[in-house]
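Per reviewer request, we include the raw input and output of the structure prediction for the construct analysed in the revised manuscript.
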Amino acid sequence: MPRTAIAAIGTFVPERVVTNADLTRLMETSDEWITQRTGIQERRWVEPGVGAADLAEAATRQALDRAGWRPGDIEAIVFASLSPDHMFPGDGCFLNARLGLPGVPALDVRNQCSGFLYGLSVADAWIRTGTYRRVLLVGAEVHSTGLDVSTRGRDVAVIFGDGAGAALLEATDDPDRGVLAVRLHADGRHARDLWTDAPGSVYSPRSRVEDIASGATYPHMEGQKVFKHAIVRMPEVVREVLAAAGHGTADLKLLVPHQANLRIAEAVQRSLELRDDQVFNNIQRYGNTTAASIPLCLAEGAEARGLRRGDLVALAAFGAGFTWAGALLRW
């Protein structure tokens, strides 16, 4: 049975840099307040009219160039995003059209911060069973157009950024490469602790003026609950995938945690007793890009930490749902 290996990763972020100082002109906040609570110093936001599919296409084309693939080499698309361009269809279909791939299947995954790893589990299953040999896995988000950039919404608005990451996955028979384990979890009892209530099909009409006035169309987060669960679940799932492959934390060359909050990532590192050189974070420059977070961080971390063929890499995510996931792979 073949394994799933990463042929190349491409990334893309908008040119517009939004610093903490910029946000002080939109809401009552400060660079110190944001940095102390999140570790974020700046994030990227799109210009009007740019959607997640635009970012995804740019990241994908960079990955194709790096791998030496043509778009026609892609046999299936898995697109993870909580911020699709439109209510439906999913952005996987829009990306399919942009790449000129009529007939190639496109699956959208709505698992928010865990979306890229949930998508990886699907792509890995397809490749292991021989359904497809080359799969495009994308995480792309445009948060900036859906944030309450006022003092009322500052606890959430300062956290999120826009960006995309695309991984080209291929089947390999090399025993020193590929995905070794993926584990997925969810606990829907906490679904309302991190969510956007409206618009939704549970309401008639789905879009209501009162929802805009009340802030129901903006993300809502119980920050302390998210923090407390994340610093437990992410180390748990890292240990779970390591154990499934017969490894321990000392074997890790690199851990790439979902970039939700630098304080969460630091707590996860302490829990796993990992050295600074075993962990990579870039939330300081991009904020939380949800489904794009892990591929963005992995691409930069691979270069910064000098990953080589056969190095052991762990990925971990936690987010809305609550959902959480982990993966272990040989580079």
